Amino acid sequence: MTNSRRTFLKNSAVLLAGTALLSKTSFAASKPAEIVGIQLYSVRDDMKKDPIGTLTQLAKIGYKNVEHANYIDGKFYGYTPAEFKKILNDLGLKMPSGHTVMGKDHWDAAKKVFTDAWKKTVEDAAFMGQKYVISPWLDESLRKTYDDMVRYMDVFNKSGELCQKSGMKFGYHNHSFEFAEKLNDIKVFDIIMQKIDPKLVAMQLDIGNMYIAGAKALDILGQYPGRFELIHVKDEIAVNTPEKYESSVLGKGIIPTKEAIDLGRKIGGTTVFIIEQESYQNATPLQSVKEDFEVMKKWGY
Q1: Is the same domain home to 126 and 199?
Q2: pTM of the model
Q3: Same domain? 136 vs 20
Q4: Judgement on whether residues 26 and 55 belong to the same structural domain of the protein
Q5: Which of 40, 146, 178, 204 is spaced 20 to 30 Å from 27 by Cα?
Q6: How far is it, in rounded angstroms, from Cα 222 to Cα 59?
Q7: HSE-up of 168 (CA within 13 Å, CB side)?
Q8: Tens digit of pLDDT for each residue in 140-182?
Q9: Which domain range does residue 3 map to?
Q10: Pair 125, 224 in one domain
Q11: How far is 52 from 234, CA to CA, in rounded Å?
Q12: Is 100 in the same domain as 153?
């Protein structure tokens, strides 16, 4: 700002008032709206038995957003995109994101094009109003060597370009192997972060899955500030299983979940917070996700 401009603003009460008003309206409105939702895998058995009844219960709890985990043969939970969109609309629900694994068979390496099946996946996601098309797994065959990984990260970026044409973003959701496995002495997670284009590919940080490999969300958020548009909000308890941990109601486990999502909000670039609980400690899934929703509200989300 030049001195003349600074003096002009200082001496003009009208413009100062207008500027103050602008700061409360236009600037505030420009901040991305936060989304809190539920990953439907949390209530997977209920969705299998009674999708509409389960979605109705989630809406009654207060959820406004859902993330799907069941897109098979062009259908969401057995419904065509048009049918499922109407079900969600009738319940006042939106679906900003969804999980569909992008596998080796979705990319024709010889022709360097996506198969019709993946193109249809993206088209149906756009029809549903999704903002993100998220792949929640990276097959072992695609990460045998460092060079394999790098080549497939280029496919990630190309999927980002495909999604971008429909106003969406491709995304990836981690499990634990990304932090446990190394290629060329580099963690798989770090290879992903180094090779994807953040303008094209969004990261959804699952703060529970990573804990199994000894990784901590607070550390990763600090290491890669601004890189996590979405977070899977989880807590974990210790159990006597090979994985050593299972998810629990938020605030009842050993992960500093609130601190992690607060940091995501502050420096992670996070605007989409998706609750996921996969184990229930003798409660029902719907009882558990109701508690999760109430905890998130108490935390200010």
Answers
A1: yes
A2: 0.90
A3: no
A4: no
A5: 204
A6: 34
A7: 25
A8: 999 999 999 999 999 999 999 999 999 999 999 999 999 999 9
A9: 1-31
A10: yes
A11: 25
A12: yes
